[in-house]
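chain below, 189 aa
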Amino acid sequence: MEEALKQHPSNCTKIVLFGPESTGKTTLSRQLAKHYNSIWVPEYARQYLQAKWDIERKICEPKDLLPIAIGQMKLENEMAKKTDSVLICDTDLLETKVYSESYYSGTCDQSIETSALKNSYDLYFLTYIDTPWEADDLRDKPDKREQMFSAFQNALVTYNKPYVLLKGTKEERLRIAIKHIDNLLKNKS
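prediction:
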């Protein structure tokens, strides 16, 4: 099990978009991948849970988290082989851990937690809740945005992850993110 959740070594700079639902992570992931002429890793949970909803009309359950985590790491590892520049990750296992603890009484599968803390990224962009909440089949906490944002920020602080808070319009967020990624790339060379 641990092998399926393990992050494979790569030469790319790994960036994670991190934060509550409906805060612009996917939009920004696409924009950044386009800007850097690179690729982005979609959020596997969306695909998995949308299929579950479409077929069974059921929402996420604790038993879904491990298959979601395995699918996410498989996707990330596959995409990391395709670039030596910047890999934009729409999520990571730490996000899965935060959601698990928030939705399921503070619990998280130990293998997910262990891998979430072992896996390494160059920078996290914490997306603030100043974007309009948009409903869809999977989003369900419009009234808990501040609480969820705090849970995400606390995880980054608790586990000493390097992060930048992104607020403002799509254009402002993109500009700030590019500035920080450019600095990372300059310091790596």
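The mean pLDDT is 93. The chain has one domain: 3-188.
thats it, cya
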